[in-house]
Amino acid sequence: MVELTGKVALVTGATSGIGRQQALALSKAGAKVVVLGRRAEQLEETVACVRKAGGEVSALQGALAMDDNLANIASQAAEFYGDIDILFNTAGVNLRQHADDVTMDSWKTTLDLNLAVPFFLAQQLVPGMRKKGWGRIVNIASLQSTRAFANGIAYGASKGGISQLTRAMAEAWSADGINCNAIAPGFFPTELTARLFEDEATTQRLADSTAIGRNGKLDDLDGVTVFLASSASDYITGQTISVDGGFTAR
């Protein structure tokens, strides 16, 4: 039920971290993967990583923003292997500004990339999924979807919105066979969390805040990634699944 052979996946934000790990996990399960990111060198590193593991992957370089032609991006992504079956909306930004320092521009940048782009990119891909009667859309939520962290007001607003967006997308499209869910990661070593993991005391404090007693490793996300992309999750939609070692359980 977790076999993805014959499926085509698009992963945004695939130049590093969670996006790269998701591309690798999906390819190992048999999917053909299109990876999208704005940094050419890092994108090629992702391609090399997937191919080294025996996966089939193609790269699409570009920055996602609401003033871009998302229809064109969706069309280009489909040129590699055909219509996209699985979309992982993993691209995101966290500017880590105090509430007093947030500007209209930084607010718009955060909300556009983290909340608006996932919806409008999915909207472009839904017709191809609907034609097949099957699709998977997976958004990336956060601990800040439900909790307030320092210097995270715009990011938290966007990720709180992702949880509700996921429910609304599920309501709109699940009857067409297109399931929409979200993953809410805890603390994983990525570019967005690099500053936290540079400080040993902070790293240990975060680990101690989990029920399991450690921070996440990127491959901890493999299981939920493949599960939500596959037919194993046929009757699951509109849900946000926390992968946080029990951080939110305490």
UniProtKB/TrEMBL annotation:
InterPro entries: KR_dom, NAD(P)-bd_dom_sf, Sc_DH/Rdtase_CS, SDR, SDR_fam
Stretches assigned to the Ketoreductase domain: 7-176
PROSITE patterns on file: ADH_SHORT
EC code(s) of this entry: 1.1.1.69
A GO molecular-function descriptor: gluconate 5-dehydrogenase activity
Gene3D superfamilies documented for this protein: NAD(P)-binding Rossmann-like Domain
Keyword terms: Oxidoreductase
Any one GO BP annotation for this protein: monocarboxylic acid metabolic process
Pfam families, alphabetized: adh_short_C2
Keyword flag Oxidoreductase: yes
Family assignment from sequence similarity: Belongs to the short-chain dehydrogenases/reductases (SDR) family.
Protein name stated in the entry: Gluconate 5-dehydrogenase
Organism: Granulosicoccus antarcticus IMCC3135
Phylogenetic lineage: Bacteria, Pseudomonadati, Pseudomonadota, Gammaproteobacteria, Chromatiales
Gene: gno_3
